[in-house]
Amino acid sequence: MKKISLFSGKALAASFTMALLILLSINAVLSGEQSPKPIPDNVLKILDNSCGKCHNQGGSGAALANLNLTKWDNYDAVKQGKKAEAICRTITTGKMPPKSFIKKNPQAIVSEEQRAIICNWSKQ
After folding, report:
1. What is the DSSP string of 34-65?
2. CB 66 within 8 A of CB 93
3. Using CA atoms, how far apart are residues 103 and 100, in angstroms rounded to an integer?
4. Could you give the C-alpha distances from 38 to 25, 67, 87, 121, in angstroms and in order?
5. Core-most of 53, 80, 109, 115, by most CB within 10 Å?
6. How many CB atoms lie within 10 A of CB 60?
7. DSSP state, residue 17
8. Domain ranges for the chain
9. pLDDT tens digits, 11-25
């Protein structure tokens, strides 16, 4: 008489794989993990105008080392969240854009309305 096992090689491997996928999914949900998100168009327009000359491809090395908007989509969701909060904080405190940049580029001044748009986005 031939024994039939519920946990033969293929069945065991499939069960293990399924259990692992379920555990990883539960962990992602419980840890609040999110997928990276592109910057919304209304926010991107403000950032391009006020930050893009330094924080996009071709900008200064120091500025790009701190924030590279060109590489935004390569950041994971956690890094995007931290960078978005930092953007809100630095424009709210008036540290960015720098006064020397504003002198040469007065159109780069971030208005109160634009600050609100950026800070609301950073909280999402």
Report:
1. ----PPPHHHHHHHHHHTHHHHSTTS-HHHHH
2. no
3. 5
4. 23, 15, 15, 11
5. 80
6. 11
7. H
8. 1-33, 41-122
9. 555 555 555 556 555
